[in-house]
């Protein structure tokens, strides 16, 4: 007789469908999960009104404004800011990332050389003037928006009130990019991660420049074949060195200066333009002093007039945007018909088919 104790029967409970070595779902459990995911996607597809509750701490949609803040409607942004530098050129455009954590370009890079003055775009308050992450930065609050510019050595301090065209700093050395530029960003107050394209704020339109290959070695002298342009010496002043007391502010284009009779005539014309199009004439450039022309010549080379010869240096020429700067637009046609009534003409050399077509360039010939 075998007296050895036999092992008692083992209770056979089902083993969990999970690998004890890898910690991965067993095939059946994995399949079940996939079926559930497919079913959820199907419900979302056929039920547009269905909402999904996110787990605590996870975003279920786009971020909401901070308490007490209302996001400005995109169409409500200003369009009359003046250019931060004369005759701005965009070296790199606005290219925001799809998500905040991805790389992208949350502003624009404007050509500007070290030492060049940076101007306030509109009336506002200096929000910050200092260094961020090793880069000199100036930011200005303008209404519901904030504009920042880097690399810029500030000539203002935090809290300063500024007006359109007010110098707020100079381009630092080294500049933001190797070829010489500043980086410009714009966002709604209180929502810094929601950067927007700065260019529509300036209302400069698509300034047309001759392709580099078509540019002349030097700009030709302005021909006097029309006999109508009044852009030339006056009052015993030198080009680009006209004292501020001899110039007047353009009321419909803050930050711009002209000879006083030209400024008054332009404002009358701009009011008439606003009755037709709903907004004043967009101005990108007006009186340009000698030092500014020196920098512009360095920056644009053969595309800019030699210092002391630019018609802008007499306070009798303006560069216009908002559609006037493109041949054939309704705005440009309006200027052709109505500009001379107010003493403003499109010189023959700048007309379509002229020696140097510039749809945007207009001069005061007198009433």
Would you kindly provide a written description of the structure presented here, covering whatever features stand out?
The strands form four sheets. A seven-stranded antiparallel β-sheet has the order 1-2-10-6-5-4-8, with no helix packed on it. The chain has a four-stranded antiparallel β-sheet with strand order 13-14-16-15, covered by helices on one side. Strands 3-9-7 form a three-stranded antiparallel β-sheet, with no helix packed on it. It is an alpha+beta fold and 367 residues long. It contains five helices and 16 strands. InterPro entries: DD-CPase-like, Dup_hybrid_motif, M23ase_b-sheet_dom, VanY-like_core_dom, Zn_M74/Hedgehog-like. Pfam families: Peptidase_M23, VanY.
